[in-house]
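Q: Sequence in, structure out?
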Amino acid sequence: MIREEIIIGYIKGKDVLDVGGVGQNPSYNLWDDMRPHAGSLTGIDLSPSENKDIILGNMENHSFDRKFDVIVLGDVIEHVDNQGLLLDNIRRHLKEEGVLIVTTPNAKWPTVFMPTNPTHTLCHDKATLCNILKTHGFNIVEFKYYYGNKRCYNFLVRPLIMRQQMLAVCKLERGFEDHER
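A: Exactly. Output:
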């Protein structure tokens, strides 16, 4: 899958925070894919986990006593009550040369005509995702559309669903201050 390949390329040997580490659905969960590649892997989720490396907490306001090389929001941002608060807190927990990776459904995908996921609070298209990331001090260094998060799609179906999901890789904007918003 495109999503996992890109993420693994950024996390090799790094100190990684997985926001939403428990996951709503095992097919969307990145934890098992990241674990063999990350130098260290910590998770935070609103759902409890038996995994001692995944803490129970809300990344909108949780304070870790350290910073991370990479923070991954794998299909999480659309579930968050206050996306700005989340991004501000992530910025505080990301090392200066760190990377934020965000994956989220594309709001301009034809599924907008279907019933929405009741746990989604706000969905994005490319323009709104880029805008909220920029507003909160992140520069996108890589952006891709990709087909959904299932492990395997028939090669005939892939061209029809290529823009179903979005992935943004971001770095901190140098000199950004909260008062700039």
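The mean pLDDT is 85.
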